[in-house]
Structure formats: structure tokens, C-alpha cells
Amino acid sequence: MPTAALTSRTADKARPEAIAASPVRAIERTMKILRALGSSPGYVTLTELSQSIDLHKSTVLRFLRTLEQGGFVASGPGGKGWRPGPVFLDIKSRAIAEQDLAEIARPLMEEAVKLTNETVQMAILPDNSIVYIAKVEPLDAPLRINTQIGTRRPIHCTALGKVLAAWRDPTAVDAIIAEAGLTRYTASTITTAEALHKALAKVRREGHAFDLGEFNQLVTCVAAPIRGADGQVVAGLSISSFGQSAKSARFAELTRQARATAERISERIGWTPGATR
């Protein structure tokens, strides 16, 4: 049999394996990119991403452009840097909502509701807005807070948003402001970057955050950080009420309860007092 025919048949036999391997390799590369972006706290440059996963920049950029079209990644302001996109984050948020943190926190949140007769919620900050991952409210509440698991809210006008942003790098906060803006919702809403950074500095000093009618003028809220074993803020816990004055003894009690509950949840996931970053 001619050599050319043998070569042709050999190539034909090898071709299905090569074709089958190509999609697998593409999936592996996609997972590497998403894993690298998902484990980074802010935007990652193309060069940093390329080096971290050991792929050529042109290859990484091609994958990023495709993932961006599907909403799985997003580019930063001015096209500088990359982070997980809304589709990826929504999937991640739903997974987190169903996993350990919410399950560990729920009994303590239920206890806080019994003690305060107010709505207790927990949220994370996966990108430029907070996402609620747990909520417990009184069964006999005459008015209800208009949120549910998966609801998103801005950082600048919510107690949970402030407590989650307070320990982020200021440049990361500025990136959120550039992307999400500082929309005014009530007369009390923070609308400048300078005012927000000042408010976040106060949160770091005091260890909790307030929303005094800044998103909904009828609602006041206090939030405290939930910390992981390394001391980093991984979530926030809030207690919301209607019509409470920030200077009232009642609101001071809600603040103490929010802090105490958040600390107990933190301890259950490995945090020890003093391990703060």
C-alpha cells in the first residue's frame, strides 16, 4: 500500500481524538481563567492573568472576549483589568446562599429575630453591589422589608453595603463607584466619593454601619461584619426596622444585638477575637 495512503489513514484515525481533545482543552482553560478571576479581590490585568495561569496573553484575551459576551467576565473602567461578570457572580451567589455560611448563621439569626422582633439579613459583596444570601423576619411583622435571597443593593446607601466595603482597599471602592455610581434615593443618600470614604472610615473605627433612611426613608438599619478564620470580612449581618431614631435606646439595643450576632457567627466559622484584618 502506498505510503501516502498509510499516512492519510493514520491522520484520519488520529483526527477524532484531536477534535475531541480540543473542546476539553478549551473547557480546562476557561475554568482556569474563571478560577483565577474568582479568587482575586479586584480587577486583574491581562498580564497578571496570563502569568498566573501560564497561557499566552493572546490566548487569554480571546477567551476573555468570548466569556465577556456571555456575561461571565467583565472588563474594568477604560478596559483596564478583568473580574468575574454578573452571570458568573449570580451563579456563585446562589451557590453560597445554599451552602455552609447561611446554614451556620440561620439559627443565630432566628435567635436575634426572637430577641428583637425585627428583620435580620445577611449579605456578601461579590462585585459592585451587595447580594442578600439569608433573611429571617418576624412572622407577625406588620410591615416587611422588600428584599429576598438574591436581591442586590448598592454599597453607598445600605448598612450592609458600607460594612462590606469598609475593609476593602480604597482603590477597589473607587472602582465600584466608577462602575455603579452613587445614585440618590432619598435626601439622606451619600452622593460623593469623599463622603462615602469618610463614612467607611467611621465604620472601621466603630465596627458597625448605619443606614438612616438612605435607601428607603422609612427604614433604618444597622450592620456588623462577619469575619472568617483569617480575620477578613466575608459577609455582613444587619437588623432592619421601621421609623427608629438613630439616637433612641431601641436603636442602640439593635446595634448591640447585630454586633453580638455577627461575632457569634464569625466564631462559628473559625474567627477568634483579635484576628482582624
UniProtKB/TrEMBL annotation:
Can the keyword Coiled coil be found in this entry's annotation? no
Q: Which GO terms describe its molecular function?
A: DNA binding; DNA-binding transcription factor activity
Keyword check for Transcription, yes or no: yes
Read off the PROSITE patterns from this record. HTH_ICLR, ICLR_ED
IclR-ED domain ranges (all copies):
87-271
Biological process annotations from GO: negative regulation of DNA-templated transcription
Species classification: Bacteria, Pseudomonadati, Pseudomonadota, Alphaproteobacteria, Hyphomicrobiales
What is the protein named?
IclR family transcriptional regulator
Q: Which InterPro entries match?
A: GAF-like_dom_sf (IPR029016), HTH_MetabolicPath_Reg (IPR050707), Tscrpt_reg_IclR_C (IPR014757), Tscrpt_reg_IclR_N (IPR005471), WH-like_DNA-bd_sf (IPR036388), WH_DNA-bd_sf (IPR036390)
Q: Which residues form the HTH iclR-type domain?
A: 24-86
Q: Which UniProt keywords apply?
A: DNA-binding, Transcription, Transcription regulation
